[in-house]
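Replying to the earlier thread about multi-chain prediction with a worked example.

Input:
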Amino acid sequence: MKKMMKQILAVLLVTVMIVPLAGCGSNGNSTDDNSSSNSDNQVTDTNDNDNNVVEDNNGSEDEVITLKIYAQYSDDDTKIPYDYAVQELAKEYPNVKLELDVQAQDDGQKLQTYAATGKLPDIFQIGLSQINAFKESGNILVLDDYVKSTGFEDKLNEANKNLLYVDDGHAYAFPYAGNEMVLWYYNKALFEQHNVKVPETYDELLEAVEKFNEVDIVPLSVFAKEKWICVALYDAFATRLEPKGVLKLDKGEASAEEPAYVEAATKLQALVEAGLLAKGATNMNYDQSRALFYEGKAAMFLNGQWEIEDSTNALGENADWMWYPTYAENPDAKYAVSGSGAPGGYAVSPYSEHKDLAAEVAAFIALKYAEAKYIYRSNPILAAKIDPSWEPEKEMSPMMQKLVDELDNITSYSVFDWGLSNPKVKVALEDQAQFILTPGYTAEEFTEALDSEMKRIFE
Amino acid sequence: MDRFFSNKKAIFLFAAPALVLFTLMIFYPLLQVIYGSFFEYKGLNPDIFAWFDNYKRLFQDKLFYTSVKNGLIFAAVITVYQILLATILAFAVSNAKVRGRSFFRVVYFIPVVLSVTVVCQLWLSVFNEQNGLLNRFFEMIGMEYSQGWLSDRHQAIYPISFTNAWQYMGYHFALLLAGIKSIPKSYYEAAKIDGASNFKAHMRITVPLLQETYKFSLIMAVTGGLNAFTQMMIMNSGGPGTATYTLTYMMLRAINKTYEFGYGMSAAVFLVIECLIATIFINKIIAKERIVY
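Result:
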């Protein structure tokens, strides 16, 4: 009996040890292996086929090809254009199916993990700093030939070519958004109700902050848990003296100790101490922050121009935007804006089993995405030319109309956080821009930390 | 039994799969990380052999000291809270006179089985500066003690550490309670005859006999604290700025954001060494000799 027990125990022990090993094995039949380079299985699209029916080398025309796509899909501004693009894709490419992996709001960390583990989706949305990292590691397909073969380049506005090609002269992603910008929204009703002047200068802004604090209204709502908006707010002040704002820091063309950057930190810090932001702003997410603005608990709100549609829906005629307040010493900076476009959009994995098709689909999706933004979101700030056949579903909102009317007055653009090309500068700026929004953090601390980091990066 | 252990080949056969797994899953990646920490990377591949440059930079980086300090604070908070409270609660629940012991046994363990995300969201709503339960409570009782719990760069690490401590206290509670149950009742009866109070009996019998359990709990709590990452990632993304960074967060920043793989790996190597030192130190000072009554 004892011997039998030992045998049973021994068998169980070996079984337990073997099971994890078996679990680690890969399925030999898996079709998800991106590193597969078996040319027999390569699928190529037939460019000369009118119906865009994809044919693989084995000749099966009706085979449905599934492409994995990693894309934004979190609010109406991303869901509506994506759904429209997918719907149009089904008409043009009936045998292509997209499998959506919703993009995480994580500064590209998930995508980076996909790249590191060789699991990049066929198509993925990407920003400039990550393009630079991916091209070094060979994780992004050069699209130079595809932008021409798909006719994508011809469909772009001439002024938007900067969105297609990076500094090395190559294209790595199909853009859909135009030269976007940070807008400073405000609630007209609250300003009128509390008899506060819409600030045009820094001093007026400081006065508005004090007045709104007296009546328990948050002067400016910022979802500062996301670091890009912290950079945008800092940049809005930096552009008051240096029109190129943080773009110059990114390129190493300016030092953090220059007056424009020191002054921006000093003024921002003074405003924070005066109560510019909601308590705990650096831990406030987008939903919490915009709820404050939409519910009339915050007088101003900072976001990109893509917020126009939603803020109009929420506040109606009471929603408006203003130029960022200027400094007394440089009132001409009124039309210098934070933002602009940078290369980015839908990119393609070089390891995709169907990379030609993926590139074609990525171009198609980018164009249709832009089309939907115009038709359903009344957003004319697009990478692509506006086709006369596109009919907006509803009239442009007064805010968007005002923006379109004022576009020609803009004297300079800086850059969005995701348009910064140097990831080290980007991270240093993000950290310091969030720090300066916390009470007690001084402009000296900001400047010293940013300057020492920049010296290390550029030396 | 002798024959069972006398065959070396059989022992090797049984041990080999586990050894192979350990080597493949832990030892080999660890060697890779140590190797990679001596390189500057280009993209995802090692490019230039940089000798000790990454380590030199590590020791000059203010963020490194912030990260180490936060790891130590995190470890200290969770160790004190979890082990102290787990001890008190385990003593209480093991007392036959306490009513509803089964209920408390389950209740204390519930947070352990909850998802970290759920627990973090729960405490995020408690610590919320605008509408959080904690600040509202202070307002309600007329105390001017509202805090920026998670947005104060000097204090944010404490509520984050507390969140972890609260969730995993039940784990240490279960370990200690199981240990207490394994101590023969006759020891306590003898102590009672000698006139020892409940507290004295626990201090003289339970605590010494649970040395091995305490050692394990301490190692888990301290290394868990030094490795901390998830709570700060979910609750305030290491912010404000880099105020609640730990070495794990710093490693992630270097690898996923600034794409300095070698530098990130040097932070990882330091973290491994730190955890090893903590483990050796705890092993040296606790349960040096097995106590048997």
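The CA atoms of residues 143 and 171 of chain A lie 5 Å apart.

Feel free to reuse this layout for your own posts.
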